[in-house]
Amino acid sequence: MKRIIRATLAILALAIASPALAHPHVFVVVKSEILFDAQGRISGISQSWTFDDMYSSFVTTGASEDGKPVTTEKLQPLAEQNVGDLAEFSYFTIVKVPGQKIEFAKPQAISMREDEKKLVTLTFTLPLKNPVKADKAFNLQVYDPTYFVSFDFAKEGVVMKSAPSGCSLSMSQPAPLGESESKRLNEAFFSGLSPGADFGIKLASRATVACP
Q: For residue 188, which phi and psi values (nearest 5 degrees)?
């Protein structure tokens, strides 16, 4: 189905994005903080996404003054609009716990900033509607199923905050692509077509939290 990218949200509005665009089109470095409440339950995910230089330049075009980083105040309307539009995509944040359905509440602590390297970082917190215990595996992934956006965790990009004693965090890397999948990805890059609506998960790392 033909889709169109909303010009003001060149990365985040994928619901109507055209598959006739090279994949991946935007690159994001992710840092995620898994939050625990006073009862030792996982209560939310704090996200920090740093965008590549091309998208960062797009966001800040015409907004900077004297070459200085754009203020967070100027970027705030865009930050709130972007996070609002992410809702229909579950914020590209996939959380799974065996036997439970996980849903997010309204995002909090939304902001956007530009650093001295001219890279833009979007931050926001996703509270869980119902906090969960991590006595069963709590799995976190951040990815775009269509691989229009490439999300990659930074080194030590997932941490726990206020975790009870004995909780552990491990990272799993995706399996190498098979020959046919690598061919699909290469063809998508050179043809400008999508490698498939399920391709992003094949390249997504996974963080797993387990508590006693």
A: -65, -40
Sign of CA dihedral 111, 88, 206, 159: positive
Longest dimension (CA), the chain: 54
Looking at the DSSP assignment, which residues form a beta bridge with residue 120? 114
* 92 neighbors 146 (Cβ within 8 angstroms): no
List the one residue out of 62, 6, 65, 52 whose CA is nearest residue 25: 52
- Tokens of residue 48, six digits: 């920090």
Helix/strand/coil for 149 = strand
Q: Which CATH architecture has domain 7-210?
A: Distorted Sandwich (2.70)
As a whole number of angstroms, the distance between CA 165 and CA 120 comes to: 35
pLDDT tens-digit profile of 71-116? 899 999 989 999 999 998 899 999 999 989 999 999 999 999 999 8
CA distance 151 to 135: 28
The secondary structure of residue 100, as a DSSP letter, is B
Model pLDDT for residues 125-161, shown as the tens digit of each residue: 999 999 999 988 999 999 998 888 889 999 999 999 9
Task: Report yes or no: 80 and 73 within 8 Å, Cβ to Cβ.
Answer: no
The pTM is what?
0.83
Count of CB atoms within 10 A of residue 103's CB?
A: 11
Count Cβ atoms below 10 Å from residue 65 Cβ, excluding itself: 9
